[in-house]
Specification:
Blueprint: H1 14-19, E1 28-34, E2 40-46, H2 48-57, E3 61-64, E4 69-72, E5 81-88, E6 95-101
Length: 123
């Protein structure tokens, strides 16, 4: 049996959290990147609640726009993401998390990364 990664909480200040700019729907784009390979795994959305949950729990928690609900990555699939580092960009309108990916990968298609298709490549 594989050893489960430890969850790592990230302590963000109120000032840092106030820097995050949400869109009209209260959402901010979030990129998850593999901490070891640096491969971009996926892009999803967070709201203020799921950002706080992610930082506190040390597991990636997103907002599902299609289901209009909190989505804790891996609760259904087992393909969980454990936070290792967290960043916000210069404008505060995009988040980046370096994660340890557990299981098959990040993509609901079964691929390791959601970015497995290239323009100009044979299909």
């Amino acid at each position: 049996m594989a050893v489960m990664p430890d969850a790592v909480a990230i302590s963000a200040s109120a000032e840092q959290l106030a820097t995050v700019k949400y869109d009209a729907n209260g959402l901010v784009p979030c990129i998850a990147q593999d901490v070891h390979t640096r491969s971009v795994l996926m892009m999803a959305w967070m709201n203020a609640e799921t950002l706080r949950m992610t930082l506190t729990e040390g597991r990636m928690v997103y907002w599902s726009r299609s289901r209009q609900e909190v989505w804790r990555k891996g609760d259904t699939s087992g393909d969980r993401q454990f936070v290792r580092e967290a960043y916000y960009d210069c404008d505060g309108d995009t988040l980046l998390f370096l994660v340890e990916q557990e299981g098959k990968g990040a993509c609901h298609t079964g691929e390791y990364s959601c970015f497995y298709r290239a323009f100009g490549a044979a299909t």
